[in-house]
What does this fold into?
Amino acid sequence: MRSIFASCAVVVLLLAAAWADHHEHHDHQHHDPHVHHHGPEHSHEGEMSCHELSNPNADFAFALYKNLNAKAEAGKNIFYSPLGISTALSMLSTGAGGDTHSQLFSSLGYGALNQSQVNEAFEHLFHMLGHSQENQKLNVGNAVAVRTGFNPQQQFQKDVKHYYSGDIFNVDFTKPAEAAAEINTLIASKTQDKIKDMVKDLDAATAMVLINYVYFRGQWEKPFDSKHTKKADFHVDENTKVEVDMMSRTGRYDFYQDVDNHTTVILLPYKGNSSMMVVLPDKGKMKEVEEFISKEHIHHWHDSLRRNSVDLHMPKFSISADASLDSTLKELGVTDAFGDNADFSGISDEIKLKVSKVSHQAVLSVDETGTEAAAATTVEIMPMSMPDIMELNRPFMIFILKHSTRSILFMGKINNPTAV
It folds into this structure.
């Protein structure tokens, strides 16, 4: 038996404007490492809590969802890590200046914060996420692949290592196939081989690749019994149905029927400090729910949940989703970073850099249990009332939440559980 796992990787490629005009072995080390246009290394406002990031990151998560959803083909699954994408872009912003920096900050919702505060909040976040429980594995990290012979500003390197726990390593981008293989090996190792061959077609002018990965493996606090898993129909849309392995369990769950917002919500806890919130719109109401959904609804549903007896039917599934985020980020206001007027002087003030590509890939697998040891049957004392029935036999939304940091680790829409 497998545990449920979710993992993702985000890759940001930075291109040098003209390697041909530049002597690659020029010594870049003569800059004063203390000159940094975002002020002191630590803000004077005191240590920042990662909770400062939860509202802006959640707003960014839903802005991403609406944009990705508008671009998605009908019936396509959407799945991504808002935390992963926010982290990669926040790490990029440490090296940005001028309008490039303000556009990144504005899109990420950091208008009220400065770079030092964001950096400290991420430092706290990584510290909190590092305390992974034994029943649950959460691996969030960053890495920067730097072109051999190119030395980024010392302050940028220090910030990446100190605040984002980032590993910095050299890669020979003049051999693009070998460079891609090296980066892909790193991503595969950090995501337990769930994400492979993500980086393709590297440009020989690549100066740097920023990488973020998130790997999550959790065990249900209340596992399903595989003896009750049966074949059932899942209605992708009015005209399309697919056969799924439908898991079933009757038990006590945090549950809420939001009549005003046409949704039924259930919280499925993992062992540890995380849970999956499943949001099932009423029949024919998915589009309407997608138009209004925001972090306020997540808060409202979370606060409205009540422990109920629920007869839950949920499909087993294993899905993968990838997205190029270039056009999405441009539509959300990050434009200069991709253009010739990009300002990444915090990374290098000698070589003009711009972002050439931001890609994201995520996979999610859900089944009955965790390890076989966790499959021991749990007996719950049920009240004598009829249970509510929640049958996930049509498209539904999911949110994997980390409660201690108030983070949305992953979110998306399961349109078709059988689509690989």
The two ends are 19 Å apart (CA to CA). Confidence is low (pLDDT under 50) at residues 20-46, 370-378.
